[in-house]
Amino acid sequence: MSAVDIHELTVSFKRGLHSFTALRMGALKIEPGECFGLIGASGSGKSTLLRVLAGLQRDWQGSVELLGSR
To answer: ABC transporter domain location, by residue (predicted)?
Structure first.
């Protein structure tokens, strides 16, 4: 069982009449005991990914499992 298992994750936001994709990932798997770093430019989706993993971001598409739970 993976600690984190993500497939085809997409997070989009609407601002007024416009929508934009804040995060789009194909796959990410982190095994228990592995070290993981998250780096990237401002606006690249780092905080958005952490919000999804923490359960704070509800509006997303794809598959996210934490320790076997969706």
So the answer is: 28-68
Work out how many domains the chain is built from and give that number: 1
CA 59 – CA 52 distance, rounded (Å): 9
CA-closest candidate to residue 25, choices 45, 42, 41, 2: 45
Domain containing residue 32: 4-66
HSE, CB side, 13 Å, CA atoms: give it for residue 38: 12
The string of DSSP letters for the chain reads: --SEEEEEEEEEEEETTEEEEEEEEEEEEE-TT--------TTSSHHHHHHHHHT-----EEEEEETTB-
